[in-house]
């Protein structure tokens, strides 16, 4: 027994010594890193002599001795220390400003871009918005030196747009922010860059939260995790995406088992554990007092109740940046409130408010205003730079062309004279053009008035007609006149010479509805946004719509049912337009041929469709459906 015990004692003693030695080496490395970040290079050098030889020690030696460390080595050093919660990021940022200078060379340095992008992101997350925006401008200036046709450059230019996206998010400018995210996401898909796609899916989920689209938020986060499976290593957004999913499932409720698995994954990663405490608070705020899961969480942290857990985790989260610390405090407040500790909950809510005030060192609105001004000035500065370059070039040319100055002056005089003459002619032409525009408007106005006179005459004539068929024909003629008059009224009111057909159809259906309102109640839906046509297209198209709608009112609608009418105009991919008019009436007979009809109205529709170089198709599907493809004036001219 003694013979066996002695080797075992030796083994465990040796193992313990080796473990202690490893721990001592890690502590030594941590100490050297802190000395470097504190700019205490003599102390760092002293302890480097005691450190074991490996590749990381060589990086530390290069940095300490101010030797030419590569940007990749700087990135490794910054990434390793950026994950350490006990190191304030401002120290790392100061280190970058002191050591990492902008590289020279004709090719973009991706490691340098990654260092600066990380620095901007962390400063922004820590509330240093002005400094982050200033560094963003410098990074953009560097990246814009290179050609976007280079795939790596295009990827980088897309990636660094995240700062502007977050600024939109802070401002709650959902429209512009989401638009930019989707543009960047499409670029990432075109480049087939999975990691870039994951990044912009993460930011897209932030905007979906603001829009209150919970299921889309969950779907986007799940899509992101599916993409993670295709990567050889987890992206920097992996755990952040998991945290998004946890928030969503906790809010949705009924997913405690999945939430627990996800939180455990964050907790079990030592570098991310500190972030899991906020997630536990979120979960506790949704659990009942007697929930087995709540009791399991209390047992996990060896506490008796929620206040003890909050107090314990409050200390453990001291190294979180202000934004993440706010998230923990806010979650703790809600968890305390849920479980009935109201006084303590309000105290933590006050702490959350106080923490929010400390997030930004200067007034947030001023920072945002400054950033917007910078964005506007960038364009102006570029224009000024170009103008200066042009001025310099012109000066050189003028110096070299001194001998030809006299000839140039003679030519310029002649050109100036011609220019003055041309200017006078232009004035005359512009005056004439304005007169013609006024004349055209007056013509449309008079045409409209003439149509209204004709319509009024027809109105008077109908009063003396007793024959129902003749009266119907007269009313149809009057409606056609009104349809054309409405076109000219819109032209008279619009300086562009185009008719907004969405507005036109609404007015036309209103006119027809009032005419038939005594007989039928019709629910009308119109889809024709941004459809603008000139008079050559508008008049035949207006008459077509008038005829088909009139046909629906006459034959499709009854008082004993709900009557529906839908009208839509959309532009197809082949530059043609598609008009669909559908009612829910009995439809036309199965043997009906729209091209051989004897109906005056439908014969008129056939002719007008041909005039628009179009095709007409009529079907019965829960009512009569007219589908017309047609071309606008420009396309018809090209065909001709």
Could you explain the architecture of this structure?
The chain is of the alpha+beta class and 640 residues long. Helix content is 70%, strand content 6%. It has a five-stranded mixed sheet, covered by helices on one side. Helix 6 (110-125) runs antiparallel to helix 7 (129-143), helix 21 runs antiparallel to helix 22 and helix 23 (501-516) runs parallel beside helix 24. It is flat and about 110 Å long. The model is unreliable at 1-5 and 7-19 (pLDDT under 50).
- Helix percentage: over 70%
Structural class: alpha+beta
Q: Treating each run of at least 4 consecutive H or I residues as one helix, how many helices?
A: 26
Q: What is the correct CATH architecture of the domain at 522-532 and 547-640?
A: 2-Layer Sandwich
Tell me about the largest β-sheet: 5 strands, mixed
Whole-angstrom Rg? 37 Å
Task: Indicate the CATH class of the domain at 522-532 and 547-640.
Answer: Alpha Beta
In the CATH scheme, what's the topology name of the domain at 522-532 and 547-640? Heat Shock Protein 90
Low-confidence stretches: 1-5, 7-19
End-to-end Cα distance, whole Å, is 108 Å
Shape verdict: flat
According to CATH, the homologous superfamily of the domain at 522-532 and 547-640 is: Histidine kinase-like ATPase, C-terminal domain
Side-by-side strand order of the widest sheet: 2-4-5-7-6
Question: Care to count the β-strands?
Answer: 7
Protein name: histidine kinase
Organism: Polaribacter marinus
Pfam families: HATPase_c, HisKA_2
Domain Histidine kinase: 442-634
């Amino acid at each position: 027994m003694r013979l066996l015990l002695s080797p075992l004692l030796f083994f465990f003693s040796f193992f313990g010594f080796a473990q202690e030695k490893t721990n001592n080496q890690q502590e030594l490395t941590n100490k050297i890193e802190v000395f470097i970040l504190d700019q205490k290079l003599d102390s760092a050098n002293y302890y480097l002599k005691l450190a074991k030889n490996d590749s990381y020690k060589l990086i530390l030696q290069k940095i300490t001795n101010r030797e030419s460390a590569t940007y990749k080595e700087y990135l490794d050093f910054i990434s390793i220390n950026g994950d350490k919660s006990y190191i304030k990021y401002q120290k790392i940022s100061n280190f970058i400003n002191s050591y990492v200078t902008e590289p020279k060379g004709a090719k973009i340095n991706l490691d340098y871009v990654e260092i600066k992008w990380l620095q901007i992101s962390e400063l922004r997350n820590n509330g240093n918005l002005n400094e982050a925006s200033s560094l963003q401008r410098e990074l953009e200036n560097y990246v814009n030196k290179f050609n976007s046709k280079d795939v790596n450059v295009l990827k980088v230019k897309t990636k660094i747009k995240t700062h502007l996206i977050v600024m939109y998010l802070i401002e709650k400018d959902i429209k512009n922010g989401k638009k930019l995210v989707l543009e960047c996401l499409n670029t990432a898909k075109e480049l087939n860059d999975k990691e870039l796609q994951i990044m912009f899916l993460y930011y897209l989920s932030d905007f979906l939260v603001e829009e209150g689209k919970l299921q889309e938020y969950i779907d986007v986060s799940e899509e992101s995790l599916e993409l993670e499976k295709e990567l050889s290593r987890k992206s920097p957004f992996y755990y952040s995406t998991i945290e998004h999913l946890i928030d969503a499932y906790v809010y949705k409720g009924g997913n405690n088992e999945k939430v627990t698995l996800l939180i455990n994954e964050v907790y079990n990663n030592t570098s991310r554990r500190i972030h899991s405490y906020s997630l536990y608070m979120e979960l506790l705020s949704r659990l009942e007092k007697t929930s087995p899961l709540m009791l399991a969480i209390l047992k996990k942290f060896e506490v008796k109740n929620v206040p003890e857990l909050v107090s314990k985790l409050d200390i453990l989260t001291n190294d979180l940046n202000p934004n993440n610390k706010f998230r923990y405090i806010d979650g703790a407040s809600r968890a305390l409130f849920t479980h009935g500790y109201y006084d303590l909950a309000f105290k933590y809510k006050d702490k959350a408010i106080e923490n929010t005030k400390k997030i930004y060192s200067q007034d947030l609105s001023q920072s945002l205003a400054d950033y917007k001004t910078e964005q506007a000035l960038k364009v102006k500065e570029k224009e000024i730079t170009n103008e200066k370059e042009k001025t310099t070039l012109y000066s050189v040319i003028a110096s070299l062309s001194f001998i030809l100055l006299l000839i140039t002056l003679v030519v310029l005089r002649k050109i100036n004279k011609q220019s003055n003459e041309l200017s006078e002619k232009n004035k005359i032409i512009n005056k004439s053009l304005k007169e013609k525009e006024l004349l055209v408007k007056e013509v449309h106005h008079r045409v409209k008035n003439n149509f209204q006179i004709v319509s009024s005459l027809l109105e008077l004539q109908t009063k003396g007609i007793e024959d129902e068929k003749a009266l119907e024909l007269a009313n149809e003629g009057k409606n056609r006149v009104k349809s054309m008059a409405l076109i000219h009224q819109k032209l008279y009111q619009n300086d562009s010479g185009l008719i907004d057909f969405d507005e036109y159809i609404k007015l036309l259906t209103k006119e027809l509805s009032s005419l038939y309102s005594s007989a039928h109640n019709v629910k009308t839906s119109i889809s024709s946004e941004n459809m603008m046509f000139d008079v050559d297209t508008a008049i035949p198209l207006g008459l077509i719509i008038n005829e088909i709608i009139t046909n629906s009112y006459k034959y499709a609608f009854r008082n004993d049912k709900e009557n529906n009418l839908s009208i839509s105009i959309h532009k197809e991919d082949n530059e043609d337009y598609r008009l669909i008019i559908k009612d829910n009436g009995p439809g036309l007979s199965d043997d009906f041929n729209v091209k051989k009809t004897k109906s005056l109205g439908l014969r008129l529709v056939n002719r007008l469709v041909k005039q628009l170089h179009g095709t007409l198709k009529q079907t019965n599907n829960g009512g009569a459906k007219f589908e017309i493809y047609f071309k606008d004036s420009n396309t018809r001219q090209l065909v001709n």
